[in-house]
Amino acid sequence: MSQKTPTGTVLYTIEQAIKEYRKVCQKNIQKVVSDITVDQCLVLIILNDNAKISQIEIAKLIFKDNASVTRIIELMVKKDYLTRETDELDKRKTKLDITQKGKKTIVLLTPVFKLNRKTALDGLSADEIELLDKILNKIILNCKTS
Predict the structure, then answer these.
(1) Distance between CA atoms of 84 and 107, rounded to whole angstroms?
(2) Separation of alpha carbons 64 and 30, rounded Å
(3) Sign of the alpha-carbon dihedral angle for 41, 43, 44, 48
(4) What is the pLDDT of residues 16-47, one digit of tens each?
(5) Alpha helices of 54-125 — where are they, by DSSP H?
(6) Percent helix, strand, coil in the chain (nearest 5)?
(7) Labelling 77: which of 9, 11, 20, 106 has CA 20 to 30 A away?
(8) Residue 44: DSSP 8-state
(9) Nearest 5 degrees, angle CA 97-CA 58-CA 75?
(10) Residue 117 in contact with residue 40, Cβ under 8 Å?
(11) Would you say 133 and 141 are in contact if contact means Cβ atoms under 8 Å apart?
(12) Angle, in degrees to the nearest 10, between helices 38-49 and 100-121
């Protein structure tokens, strides 16, 4: 019997699904805002929802290392999506603020985020989505507790 995937596992298929989802997201984002990436959008959304979040927490939420997030933020400051100020009390910390351009970008891309989710989940029933979520959370828990 031949294997459908290089590893023959559902875990490979999950990874492939994530990569394809990121591709469709980037393609749809580019149609509206040409100079921003999926990861930069995630940073904007996270900061918009929680202005006081640390860079380390951002890194965890977008599954990147701290150095990658530092580079993403530097690019976003250069492109005028964010401003960065050193914390007066703790010079090691920086305060990130979304600029007017960043806020306009969130408004422009909100329908795109909804479209991306709709595209990815097209044809799945609410029950299937709920089951998939339960299964994926079990896999996450298995990996965290091993």
Answers:
(1) 21
(2) 22
(3) positive
(4) 999 999 999 999 999 999 999 999 999 999 99
(5) 55-61, 66-78, 100-121
(6) 65, 5, 25
(7) 20
(8) H
(9) 55
(10) no
(11) no
(12) 110
Distance between CA atoms of 12 and 5, rounded to whole angstroms? 7
Phi, psi for 90 (deg, rounded to 5): -130, 100
CA 56, chain centre distance (Å):
14
pTM: 0.85
State both tokens at 26.
């980037």
pLDDT of residue 134: 97
Instruction: Using the Cα atoms of residue 19, residue 23, residue 26 and residue 28 in order, give the sign of their dihedral.
Output: negative
Residue type, position 86, single letter: T
Give the burial class of 26: count Cβ atoms within 10 A of its Cβ; 0-12 exposed, 13-18 middle, 19 or more buried. middle
Give the C-alpha separation, 22 to 26, whole Å. 6
pLDDT in tens, 61-119: 999 999 999 999 999 999 999 999 887 888 878 889 999 999 999 999 999 999 999 99
